[in-house]
Amino acid sequence: MKQTLTRIIISLTFFIGLGITQDMENQSLSIPQAYENGNGEPSNQNRLPQLLRDVKVLLSEAFIADVMLDTLEVVYSLNRIFDFLSEADQYG
Fold first, then answer.
1. What totals of helices (H) and strands (E) does the chain contain, helices first?
2. What is the DSSP string of 40-60?
3. CA distance 15 to 52
4. Are the C-beta atoms of residues 42 and 32 closer than 8 Å to each other?
5. Which residue in 25, 26, 13, 87 sits closest to 52, CA to CA?
6. How far is residue 9's CA from residue 49's CA, in Å, rounded to a whole number?
7. Residue 24 to residues 38, 70, 75: CA-CA distances in angstroms?
8. Residue 3: what are its φ and ψ, rounded to 5°?
9. Quick one: residue 69, left, alpha or beta (phi over 0 = left, psi -120 to 50 = alpha)?
10. Which tens digits make up the pLDDT trace of 26-65?
11. CA gap 73, 63 in Å, rounded
12. Count of CB atoms within 10 A of residue 51's CB?
């Protein structure tokens, strides 16, 4: 029973991984060739969505650091958030 379940899990993991890599190959072919900046985003697109995604990630890291009582990390994350939001304000 355990061996059968293990085989099923391994085969599902393999096929899901195979499907994800094929999707990534198809997506990379459909993206127009353009110069990419440091974030991996093409430079001819608007940077505002990437900035807002970075702010969301930093805000979640700040919340986690606050729960862990790491005040230095919270201050650093909030400082970066304000930098990103001021840059986003210049775009908007």
1. 3, 0
2. S-BTTS-SHHHHHHHHHHHHH
3. 33
4. yes
5. 87
6. 37
7. 20, 37, 36
8. -65, -40
9. left
10. 565 555 555 455 566 555 567 888 988 999 999 999 999 9
11. 10
12. 19
Spatial separation of the C-alpha atoms in residues 83 and 90, rounded to whole Å: 11
Name the residue with tokens 């606050």: 66
Tokens 């994800």 map to which residue? Answer: 20
Q: What is the pLDDT of residues 4-31, one digit of tens each?
A: 767 666 666 666 766 666 666 656 555 5
Domain ranges of the chain: 1-33, 44-92
User: Quick one: pLDDT at residue 88?
Assistant: 86
